Amino acid sequence: MKKFLALILALAMGLSLVACGGKEEPAETPAEGNEAAEGAEFEEMTWKYTCSATENTCWADMGRDFGQMVSDATGGKVKVEVYAADQLTAGNQTEGIQGVMDGTIELSAHSNIIYSNFDKRLNVVSLPFLFDSFEDVDAKLDGDAGKAVGEVVESMGLHLLGIAENGFRHPTNSVRPIESLADMKGLKLRVAGSDLLNAEYDAWGANWTNANWSEVYTGLQTGTYDGQENPLPTADGASIAEVQKYVTYWTGVYDCIFFTMNGELYDSLSPELQKIVDECGQKAAQNQRKLEREGDQEVLKKWADAGVQVTELTPEAVEEFKAASAKIYEDPKFVEMMTPELIAAFTE
């Protein structure tokens, strides 16, 4: 009797499978549903990331941060190699960007000043006193102004992953504190090579000159230059405080960093991977801004403790500097270069 019942049960199970039109599903493997299994649907890729700053900076940290997030999201299928100080192009920042445009490098982080060598409209971010605080920076770059400048970047055959930060460029010197417009007059300052920066320091009365960054420390040490201007983490990385007595902490000139990917590469990615790189790019850029600002304050305190005199302009002094450089916003040369529409996106 037991054998008969077992036979009937077996037949019933077989008929059930036929009626469902299928067969038994395989057992779920331990890897299914976890991050690594999800990554299995992505092709294995290794992307090169180049940036201007050195290995121990938050510029390089941004590449590592982005790479870790993308690797985690793809189960390790997509990896990012970081090449700081533009190692891939022998230190040439412009060629670093060109490499991403050409597709020989996949990812780039360079300042808008360097990008302006390709499209002069990108100078707009460094107009004098365009921003009055970090909060103002975030409101504009994360809003319509950031979208407008992002369209310019993407017109170069690039995909913009995020806008990070080089920071406000603070002037230092070894002659006197810069507390007013009159204090800037006649100072021999090394200024980064840019027609806009040259015009700004000309309007403020400085005796500016352009020189390779690698030559600046020696020039300051020997008195060839009285001072220089740069974001504090950049200046500190070159030990500028050893040969400078004064720093003016202000909002006169600002640099952003465009974090980009080769456009053709981005277009070739699956929608799922595009979503990952966009989300990770935005997050990495925001993380970098936070690190840059923390570093800014750390350097300021470090320099003050080392005896460098820190000056913050009074509201009256700020207005002096603003008034002296206001003509740049109306100069036909710069208006045509940056376009009235793009300037308006940041100022209205």
Helix run count: 16
From the spread of the alpha carbons, the general shape counts as globular
Total domain count: 1
Return residue spans where pLDDT drops below 50 for at least 5 consecutive residues.
1-37
Summarize this entry quickly:
This protein is of the alpha/beta class and 348 residues long. The chain has helices spanning 2-20, 35-39, 58-73, 93-102, 112-115, 134-141, 144-154, 181-184, 195-203, 216-222, 232-237, 263-268, 271-305, 315-325, 332-338, 340-347; strands at residues 45-51, 78-83, 107-111, 158-168, 170-173, 188-190, 207-209, 227-230, 246-249, 254-262, 309-312.
Can you give a write-up of this model?
It contains 16 helices and eleven strands. The protein is of the alpha/beta class and 348 residues long. It has a single domain (44-347), classed as D-Maltodextrin-Binding Protein, domain 2, CATH 3.40.190. A six-stranded mixed sheet has the order 7-6-8-5-9-11, sandwiched between helices. A five-stranded mixed sheet has the order 2-1-3-10-4, with helices on both faces. Helix 9 (195-203) links the parallel strand 6 (188-190) and strand 7 (207-209). It starts with a helix and ends with a helix. Mean pLDDT is 89; it is low at 1-37.
